[in-house]
């Protein structure tokens, strides 16, 4: 939520389904301003800005994962940075820099910067600034579809470029109530649908709604998965325990023979412990090995997202809680089976 809901009100548009330049979005989403005024909700920061195509001819490039990188003006970029508590940046004339999504890797940035040290725009050529990139968290809607970088151009350059997206970020003086956030979302959707008739896609994110929905979904997901893990664990351990206890009659005779041969009772207890250790330990060891392989592959494939959105510490804490529950179940089943088995062979 720290990455997705950085603003109390976050509005963005998409031109993915727009094929006429005259249909591109304009305006500052006045319906939001009207709602905040009517409800007496004070605003501490407000930035409406456009995202531009460096080259107008890129407007019709709609190949998935090959959308062009868009640009933001320096003044709008600094306004957003100030809103989030970051220091403003400066650019010389005919210079540009880049802003990266928090999930972008260092190798990805370096490769892009090497191949884009110079950018040709509709109003001339720009060269990369000495400070080539920034990666502070600034939300997910700052970037074009399927891209994780945005150019930062001087204002004089952006004034002559094609504006394709129109966004607005708002910070309110106090947190929006759930009812106000829901009412604002409903009013916005009526005026700016998810996909309008001219192909423009609109989206509004309100931190109050997102946080509540995310917490609810996260709780349901965690509960369902932990419950499922516990149920499966109970089924497996019950089968293992019953298998040993049902065969206790056969083992009673075998251990009685060992006693007659002079085997000490303490040694018999050790043999029982080893036998149950094998029957319980082998499935557990196999499951741990398989789980370790799956978890290692999963963590490797989404390590950047985990680091950017969750944090390794938080993930380890969640995993530790789940693993502790499963270990507690294993210990309870093992001890209860060991006690019952010993009584069975003794009688």
UniProtKB/TrEMBL annotation:
Keywords associated with the record: Membrane, Transmembrane, Transmembrane helix
Transmembrane segments: 224-246, 276-299, 319-341
Keyword Membrane: yes
InterPro entries cross-referenced by the UniProt entry: ABC-4_Integral_Memb_Prot
PANTHER family assigned to the protein according to its UniProt record, in alphabetical order: ABC TRANSPORTER PERMEASE, ABC TRANSPORTER PERMEASE-RELATED-RELATED
Protein's UniProt name: ABC3 transporter permease protein domain-containing protein
